Amino acid sequence: MNIKIVADSCCDLNDELENKMNIKVVPLTIDIDDKIYRDDENLDTKNLLSDMKLSKNSPKTACPSPDEFKNAYKGEEDVFVVTLSSALSGSHNSAVLAKNLTLEEVSNKFIHVFDSLSASVGETLVSMKIFDLAKKGYDNINIVEKVEEYIKEMKTFFVLESLDNLIKAGRISNLKGKLASLLSIVPIMKSTNEGEIDMLEKVRGPKKAFKRLIEVVGENGEKLEDKILGIAHCNCLDKALKFKEEVMKLYNFKDIIIVDTHGISTVYANEGGIIIAF
After folding, report:
1. Residues 155 and 118 sit within 8 Å (Cβ to Cβ)
2. 3-class SS letters over the chain
3. N or C: which end of the chain has fewer CB within 10 A?
4. How far apart are CA 81 and CA 99, in angstroms?
5. Which residues does 89 contact at the CB level (< 8 Å), separation at least 6?
6. CB neighbours of 74 closer than 8 A, spacing ≥ 6?
7. Rounded to whole angstroms, how far apart are CA atoms 46 and 191?
8. Using CA of residue 125, residue 226, residue 189, residue 90, what is the dihedral sign?
9. In sequence order, which residues have a C-beta less than 8 Å from that of residue 122 and are 6 or more positions away?
10. Domain 156-277 is in which class?
């Protein structure tokens, strides 16, 4: 299996997955009041959360440069790349440009860039699918076909307990945000077929939102026994474990994985956020 998987740093991993798949992660950066965080293994997400709360401004993110992706492609292996949805970030374009630059120098190298149409644990599941197919001996063309099909069928949902970043970014007005907080409104969000973020529904209170998210799995899932459920959490492991426990009572997933959100996903989800994909 002479392949390399490259992903941007919105691909949230735990130690087991990182060691198993040996993914090369290319970091994005986060800017909070001119303080730059590099979303790599040295990032402390608790400090990031603290700085986000203290700031009056919305965090800004920047995708990796083509050169950073190009460096990650080096080596003898065939390369499969997984990026954030192109509707959310320039990371995909940067990865594609790096591919084109690499092929100008090494024309016979295999590189394929997947637009995950998702983020966070959605990227993780795509990476796992690539690894699994390669391990089973599928050739590169078949891997591309099967993973593209997998991406089209994958569902991503997330629940936000904090609206701070949406208010700061102007996505919702300060008045509406305060009113939503006052009324304990919790939005359940989804990724569209085009990889954009859309509102699924609003729920009154975190407990109802948690219960509703479990129901959403059943309403949107088919052949769950053949699928893996990915759960990413932002500094709320107990909630993620509880979600897994409740899901296992109702649905028969092939496997369930739990990961912490790293820097970019922490910016999206904020404290207490849960992201699921399957």
Report:
1. no
2. CCEEEEEECCCCCCHHHHHHHCCEEECCEEEECCEEEECCCCCCHHHHHHHHHHCCCCCEEECCCHHHHHHHCCCCCEEEEEECCCCCCCHHHHHHHHHHHHHHHCCCCCEEEEECCCCCHHHHHHHHHHHHHHHCCCCHHHHHHHHHHHHHHCCEEEECCCCHHHHHCCCCCHHHHHHHHHCCEEEEEEECCCCCEEEEEEEECHHHHHHHHHHHHHHHCCCHHHCEEEEEECCCHHHHHHHHHHHHHHCCCCEEEEEECCHHHHHHHCCCCEEEEC
3. N
4. 10
5. 8, 10, 28, 61, 63, 83
6. none
7. 26
8. positive
9. 116, 154, 156, 191, 230, 275, 277
10. alpha beta
pLDDT of residue 39: 98
Please name every residue paired with 5 in a beta bridge, in sequence order, or none if there are none: 80
Model-level pTM? 0.93
For residue 145, what pLDDT is reported?
98
Which CATH code is given to the segment(s) 3-153? Answer: 3.40.50.10170
Q: Cβ distance 30 to 263 under 8 Å?
A: yes
Residues of the chain where predicted confidence (pLDDT) is lower than 70: 1, 163-183
Quote the tokens at residue 43: 């990032």
For the chain, where do the domains classified as CATH 3.30.1180.10 start and end? 156-277
At which residue do the structure tokens 């759960």 appear? 231
Tokens 């949805």 — which residue? 85
